[in-house]
Amino acid sequence: MNPAVSVKNLSVNFHEHTVLDNISFKLPDRSFTVIVGPNGSGKSTLIRSLLGIIEPEKGEIRIYDRTPSGINPEWMGYVPQTKTLDRNFPGIALELVVSGLRRSWPFFIKQNEKEKAQSALSRVGALHLSNRPLTRLSGGELQRIYLARSIIHNPRIILLDEPMTGIDAAGEADSYRLFDELNKDMTLIMVTHDLETAFHHASHVMVLNKKLIGYGKPEECLTGECLRIAFGHVGHSHPRLKGAADG
Ligand SMILES: Nc1ncnc2c1ncn2[C@@H]1O[C@H](COP(=O)(O)OP(=O)(O)OP(=O)(O)O)[C@@H](O)[C@H]1O
Ligand SMILES: [Mg+2]
Q1: Domain CATH code at residue 238
Q2: Coil/strand/helix, residue 24
Q3: Ligand 1 pocket list (CB less than 6 A)
Q4: Which among 92, 112, 209, 231 is placed 20 to 30 Å from 14, CA to CA?
Q5: What is the per-residue pLDDT for 208?
Q6: What's the pTM?
Q7: CB 102 within 8 A of CB 74
Q8: In which domain, by residue range, is 187 found?
Q9: Given the CA of residue 208, which atom of ligand 1 is nearest to it?
Q10: In ligand 1, which atom is closest to the CA atom of 45?
């Protein structure tokens, strides 16, 4: 079977500064890949390259055998790391979710769009927030609304850039239950700083620091050597990873 994502010799520079350096990997369909790496290591740049937001200097990206610009946008869901939404915008949560179906803000919502949005909100446990003004959402609540927005199309692949920021422990457990459920039909790629969760939930882990330092199953990839190259000493400061970090 063709991979969901295939990246060959990808390099990205910003102002002659290399951010991603000759990266190649293939992600199987319906895999759950977690990308870990220190701040500034190119994780968001990789996600944005897969989305076609960033044009790479060199290399080839194929998503379900298509280029990022040639892919049906409905196939991809995205939760950005930085929420560019103006928090004073006079909209409600439901409208933000429906905006995932369009390229513009939905001033008028059709009944079928409302039903899709409510179904997505229900899946992320946020149906009760449907009519809440965006200005009255907490950071964690806004994260959930963005998560609902990313799944409203029922995409084939979801790119999640630090989706747990601001979500409380119970919400995090709910989110992972949802990810496991979505993962039955969808390919998931998630950036996180939570190495322990990566170890327990992911089918694959990518350790990134400009170069691809490691890629494989969590137990193969979250090894002491890999983490030391990417993070310096930090691998040993994660007690639950000690077994892996000592490997
Ligand atoms: N649009 C841009 N223009 C110039 N430099 C950029 C741009 N976007 C990112 N960079 C630089 O590229 C490098 C990688 O940034 P990126 O956002 O991909 O890191 P990251 O691994 O996601 O970090 P974090 O964990 O802090 O989110 C950083 O040095 C950053 O300053
Ligand atoms: Mg980032």
Answers
A1: 3.40.50.300
A2: strand
A3: 14, 19, 37, 39-45, 81
A4: 231
A5: 94
A6: 0.90
A7: no
A8: 5-245
A9: 21
A10: 18
Instruction: Please report, in angstroms and rounded to a whole number, the separation of the first and last CA atoms in the chain.
Output: 32
Task: Give the tens place of pLDDT for each residue, 83-108.
Answer: 666 767 789 999 999 999 887 888 88
- Which residue type, as a one-letter code, is found at position 219? E
pLDDT at 113: 95
- Burial of residue 2 (CB within 10 Å: 0-12, 13-18, 19+) is exposed
Residue 14 scores a pLDDT above 50: yes
Residue whose CB lies within 8 A of the most ligand 1 atoms, among 10, 45, 49, 55, for a mutation test: 45
Q: Work out how many domains the chain is built from and give that number.
A: 1
Dihedral sign computed on CA atoms, order 13, 195, 7, 47? negative
Residue among 10, 11, 19 whose CB has most ligand 1 atoms within 8 A, to mutate: 19
CA distances (Å), origin 177, targets 91, 123, 184: 29, 10, 11
